[in-house]
Design a protein that fits this description.
Helices cover 10% and strands 29% of the residues. The chain is mostly beta strands. The protein has three domains: 33-63 and 73-348 and 400-433, Cupredoxins -  blue copper proteins (Immunoglobulin-like), CATH 2.60.40; 450-616, Immunoglobulin-like, CATH 2.60.40.420; 623-701 and 757-790 and 825-864, Cupredoxins -  blue copper proteins (Immunoglobulin-like, Sandwich). The strands form 16 sheets. Strands 21-20-23-28-25-26 form a six-stranded mixed beta sheet. A six-stranded mixed beta sheet has the order 32-31-34-49-36-45, with no helix packed on it. Strand 6 (146-147) and strand 7 (150-151) form a beta hairpin. Mean pLDDT is 86; it is low at 1-53 and 358-390.
Length: 873
């Protein structure tokens, strides 16, 4: 048994062949240097390839705009268990490149090239279809589609389960690292400082571990799940290296681990049946010994090969695992396979808060929090033996649209853009109520839209002229601008998941003649009040966000290929205005087909009332809040100061593996999450694992100046133009830092009193602080964009009163200063409340612009038991 060759690759050749279908090998025609750098993965090795059957760079027919909507195959739960196998592999798939690479417009063209990408796929998948009699059935999925000899891009399989179910997934990593030269984690070998290197100059000033590296390693983050973050649950700290290979074939296969994993899943089911709060496994001895023995053997062989190839100084994996096991912690590194087993908790009480748990009886062995037998303590030591009778969940899992994706620090951005994402639909009373109105099984037949920005390398790894402004174009289930078919007047439910690693989708209006109504945000359903009163208008769906929409078609069709659903590509609201404002882009088309007949009259109406609202989603009251925290996200542009890379930090610190925030279990906290990014403006999407949150206050210091009645910028009657701020000589925004000569509807903020900076509401008598949103039907999130900061600058005017232009032809500016002579810098922020309940352990929060997370904008949250596990006598 041996490892794939781990050869040093210090640069990327822009003109090189890549491998094609395995039936024959030839050399691909050369791309121009700029196009190939834009198309090629920064760390691919040279391989020969069959010439493409289509004209060079032309997209195959199945990738053309206006093709039918692609239905993603599913791995579905049966008999209370989501049992299946998720494979991680690689192959060449068609990847599009925008021409030109500059900011996208609806007239942008695409070129397609087969590129090696890593992807998830599922074994034994199905697709749900409704027959003419209205009966929904699961149909086995045919092999993945290809065109012109190469696979078409598609997300990983949709996972479908129900609240209360067990998740039992075998995860197998069969990536062939030879297809991605040097993609084994370079931090293990010490080369290049541990970071990937490209001829475009990357890593520059990036330092390991906060850089791009290790992209052949895999794991799964179950985004949106309220569950155990430890051991075999939603644990993002584990790292599964590719299987070793013999004679070019993977050693680890589903068949090889099937028996061991089945034994583990059976015991896991038994252990987790004791309580919904039960956490198991808790240590390495709980796993099948044959499998752990093989893992030890393979890790040692892996380490031996590293030592042989690179000599002393390499970072060996087994000694790290062995030390963690000795300390009772869960080991981090694996070869080829890992079993996920955890419960999706079901809240069964009809009221909130739930009944108080029974008194804990520890018999002098400790004083652990009641109801958490076997909970993880620090590295994995447990409070085994707690009496769990009477314990109740504080929350439970919200049924709705969630998703999963690769989450290995250093490779998250690359792997997600390769397509290592998929939807995770968790059903419950939400689906039951919708199906009662629209027909049995209706929700399973509705369009699921996994949106991504597919590509093979982040912009930082590309050469000049090949960096894509705003990232690659949006795809839907791997296709550009597909066509969804609807009957005239039909209502469909669209589950939209933005799995893009960078950009948000900004929805302005429904297509002409269409109506839509939002049902849920981030997999958490709306209350009836929000369902009926919150319009889906000017809505930002950031990276990681999800929305469930009821969409009602008009009675008349649009011209072929259909009615366009338009979005704008943005990372900050500033992208929507100014001379380079984002242009409307077609996300998909809707074909209103008169030949499609809907027999159920309810399927032409919006459901009158929102589905039953779970008791555990009661809004967080002021009285519940027991603690507060402040976090500051911040990005600095490159070369500030000179010759330094862009920095992405939380509380001024890059990720280093240390705990950044500690919260007591079963408590509620309110956090102020700030954004000290002043240029370029970036609304960092804040994401925290395990527990959703409610937003109670938002302060955007860049908020535009608008007339509250008209919603438009007020116009100066003298100049017939929008008002100019006399302090900055620039278009006025809502907040001014001078008390006089305010434009209409402007609010003054004292530049010398940062403690007063917050949201204001204009009124005829003057601006007043905007009250926080509490004790009402507040929406739940797990991703929320933090408004970017504002650093006012003053345009310099010459003797003629006109702006002084710099060498680049733009007006010269200087910072506006406060009384202390320092530049005014006003961070944007939001306040959120969350119940840190049910599950102790370690997980992360981070920016969901994934290149920022990989490069340092992440920290660890520890949810610690309220009481210690130690005896007092």
């Amino acid at each position: 048994m041996c490892l794939p060759a781990l050869k040093l690759q210090t640069s990327v050749e822009c003109q090189r062949p890549v491998r094609g279908p395995r039936r024959s090998l030839h050399v691909l025609r050369w791309l121009s240097a700029a196009l190939l750098c834009a198309a090629a993965l920064a760390s691919q090795t040279a391989r020969a390839q069959t010439p493409t059957p289509t004209p060079f760079g032309q997209c195959p027919p199945s990738m053309a705009t206006g093709q039918p909507f692609f239905w993603v195959p599913e791995v579905a739960a049966q008999n209370g268990k989501l049992r299946g196998t998720v494979m991680l592999g690689d192959e060449q798939r068609w990847i599009t490149n925008r021409i030109p690479v500059s900011a996208p417009t609806d007239q942008s063209q695409s070129q397609c090239f087969p590129q090696f990408v890593r992807f998830f796929w599922g074994l034994d998948t199905v697709i749900y279809k409704m027959n003419e009699q209205g009966v929904v059935a699961a149909v086995p999925y045919a092999p993945k589609p290809t065109d012109a000899g190469y696979a078409l891009p598609q997300p990983g399989p949709t996972l479908r389960a129900r609240v209360g179910n067990l998740v039992q997934l075998a995860f197998i990593n069969q990536i062939d690292p030879n297809d991605f030269g040097d993609s084994i984690d370079r931090g293990e070998t010490g080369r290049g400082g541990g970071c990937d290197e490209t001829s475009a100059g990357y890593p520059g000033g990036d330092k390991y571990p906060d850089c791009f590296h290790g992209s052949s390693t895999g794991n799964i983050h179950f985004h949106g799940t309220h569950t155990d973050p430890n051991a075999t649950g939603d644990n993002v700290f584990i790292e599964v290296r590719p299987t070793l290979r013999e004679n070019g074939k993977p050693v680890i296969t589903p068949n090889r681990v099937e028996g061991w994993f089945n034994d583990f899943f059976s015991r896991c089911e038994q252990e987790l049946s004791h309580s919904q709060l039960r956490e198991w496994p808790t240590n390495w001895a709980d796993m099948p010994k044959q499998w752990t023995d093989e893992q030890e053997l393979m890790l040692k062989r892996y380490d031996a090969q590293l030592l042989k190839d690179y000599g002393t100084g390499v970072k060996q994996l087994w000694p790290v695992d062995a030390a963690q096991i000795r300390e009772g912690a869960w080991p981090q590194y694996y070869i080829g396979a890992f079993p996920y087993c955890y419960r999706i908790p079901e809240y069964t009480s009809t009221s909130w808060p739930p009944p108080a748990p029974a008194t804990t009886v520890m018999g002098g062995e400790g004083t652990a929090e009641a109801g958490h037998e076997g909970m993880s303590m620090g590295g994995g030591a447990t409070t085994a033996g707690a009496d769990i009778s009477g314990a109740q969940l504080r929350m439970g899992q919200a049924p709705g649209t969630h998703w999963y994706h690769a989450h290995k620090h250093g490779s998250t951005a690359i792997n997600v853009s390769n397509g290592m994402t998929g939807a995770f639909i968790i059903e419950g009373q939400y689906d039951d109520d919708l199906n009662k109105w629209y027909g049995d099984g209706w929700t399973r037949t509705q369009p699921l839209m996994v949106v991504n920005q597919l590509g093979v390398s982040p912009n930082l790894m590309r050469g000049p002229g090949s960096q894509q402004d705003k990232g690659p174009d949006f795809s839907v289930n791997g296709r550009l601008k597909p066509v969804v078919t609807m009957a005239p007047g039909e209502v469909q439910m669209w589950r939209i998941v933005n799995t893009s690693g960078r950009a948000a989708m900004y929805f302005e209006d429904a297509p002409a003649g269409f109506q839509w109504r939002q049902l849920a945000q981030d997999g958490v359903q709306f209350s009836d009040h929000n369902y009926k009163n919150r319009p889906f208008h000017n809505v930002t769906v950031a990276s990681g966000n999800r929305v469930d929409l009821l969409v009602k078609a008009p009675m008349t069709p649009c011209a072929p290929p259909g009615c366009p659903v338009l979005v704008k590509n943005m990372v900050d609201p500033a992208d929507l205005t100014g001379p380079r404002a984002a242009k409307p882009l077609t996300l998909l088309y809707v074909k209103v087909d008169p030949s499609v007949v809907v027999s159920n009259p309810n399927r032409k109406q919006f459901i009158p009332n929102a589905p039953t609202f779970p008791a555990f989603l009661k809004s967080i009251s002021d009285e519940e809040v027991k603690g507060t925290k402040r976090l500051v996200f911040g990005s600095t542009p490159p070369n500030n100061p000179p010759a330094t890379p862009a920095m992405h930090t939380i509380d001024g610190k890059k990720f280093d593996g240390e705990v950044g925030e500690v919260v007591l279990l079963n408590t509620v906290e309110e956090w102020k999450v700030s954004n000290a990014t002043y240029g370029p403006k970036i609304a960092h999407p804040f994401h925290i694992h395990i527990n959703p949150f409610q937003v109670t206050e938002v302060f955007d210091p860049n908020e535009p100046l608008l007339d509250p009645k008209t919603g438009k910028a007020p116009v100066n009657p003298k100049t017939k133009l929008p008002y100019v701020d006399p302090q900055t000589n620039q278009p006025a925004v809502k907040y001014a830092f001078h008390p006089t000569n305010l434009a209409p509807f402007q609010c003054y903020l004292d530049p010398n009193r940062p403690e007063t900076w917050g949201p204001m509401t204009w009124a005829p008598g003057g601006c007043k602080p905007t009250p926080s949103v509490t004790n009402m039907d507040n929406i739940w999130w797990d991703v929320f964009p933090i408004p970017s900061g504002y650093a006012p600058t003053q345009v310099q005017l010459g003797p003629d009163g006109k702006p002084i232009l710099g060498p680049n032809g733009r007006p010269e500016t200087k910072s506006v200063l406060n009384a202390a002579g320092k530049p005014i810098q006003v961070p944007g922020y939001f306040k959120m409340r969350s119940r840190f309940v049910d599950y102790p352990g370690f997980y992360v929060l981070h920016c969901h612009i994934l290149a920022h997370e990989d490069r340092g904008m992440m920290t660890i949250v520890e949810v610690a038991p309220v009481r210690t596990p130690y005896s007092h006598n």
